[in-house]
């Protein structure tokens, strides 16, 4: 069964609903330029309300290592997602790290060979944004990327295409944010539930 990460969490209601619907992980974005950015204080508050066995992920973009360590200790997040231009050695700052790559074509897969991390998150390349564009990722590239390690599929996923995406790519996990939003930073609970249920029903 594929694992599901709901990213861009900004409030307790969305977080608890995601968990109730079966999400495996929640993502908190600590990047100031993102419309879904959350303060460390708010993230800590939300995380304190979560039940056990839920993975919490902190999303960082080209952040200072010491700042990341401070955020881990303060908020209680247990997985890092590095979504910028971080070098391979950055993956050694924590025991569970997801390294995100924004890919345009198959040649962009070459750098993955240098990284040692828990999983690779694959997203659509955009010169204006480090993620959350809503643009569909090239699934053929994702299939090829599986030879480098566990793959978290992202980029343009929504309730209408998630079944086809999981069946085609068969990733370790999927990641969604804008595809289930009512507005930026607020989830559409009906879409979120439908997305999670469909994603988990494909591979049993």
Keywords:
TIM Barrel, alpha/beta, about 200 residues, 6 helices, 8-stranded parallel beta barrel
**Rg value:** 15 Å
Shape: globular
Give the spatial strand order of the biggest sheet: 1-2-3-4-5-6-7-8
Low-confidence stretches: none
Helix content: 25-40%
Secondary-structure element series: EHEHEHEEEHEHEEEH
Mean pLDDT: 93
CATH topology: TIM Barrel
Describe the structure.
The chain is α/β, with parallel strands linked by helices. The protein has one domain (3-202): Alpha-Beta Barrel (TIM Barrel). It contains 6 helices and 10 strands. The strands form 2 sheets. It has an 8-stranded parallel barrel, surrounded by 5 helices. The chain has a two-stranded antiparallel sheet with strand order 9-10. Helix 5 packs parallel to helix 6 (189-202).
């Amino acid at each position: 069964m594929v694992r599901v990460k709901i990213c861009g969490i900004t409030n307790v209601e969305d977080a608890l609903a995601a968990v109730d619907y079966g999400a495996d992980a929640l993502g908190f974005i600590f990047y100031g330029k993102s419309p879904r950015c959350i303060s460390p204080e708010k993230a800590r508050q939300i995380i304190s309300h979560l039940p056990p066995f839920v993975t919490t992920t902190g999303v960082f973009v080209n952040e200072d290592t010491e700042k990341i360590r401070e955020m881990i200790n303060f908020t209680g997040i247990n997985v890092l997602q590095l979504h910028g231009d971080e070098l391979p050695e950055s993956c050694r700052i924590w025991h569970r790290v997801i390294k995100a790559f924004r890919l345009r074509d198959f040649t962009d897969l070459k750098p993955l060979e240098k990284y040692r991390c828990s999983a690779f998150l694959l997203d659509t390349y955009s010169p204006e944004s480090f993620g959350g564009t809503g643009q569909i990722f090239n699934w053929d590239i994702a299939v090829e990327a599986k030879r480098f390690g566990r793959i978290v599929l992202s980029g343009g996923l929504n309730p209408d295409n998630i079944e086809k995406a999981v069946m085609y790519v068969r990733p370790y996990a999927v990641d969604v944010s804008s595809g289930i939003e009512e507005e930026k930073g607020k989830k559409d609970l009906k879409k979120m539930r439908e997305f999670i249920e469909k994603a988990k029903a494909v591979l049993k």
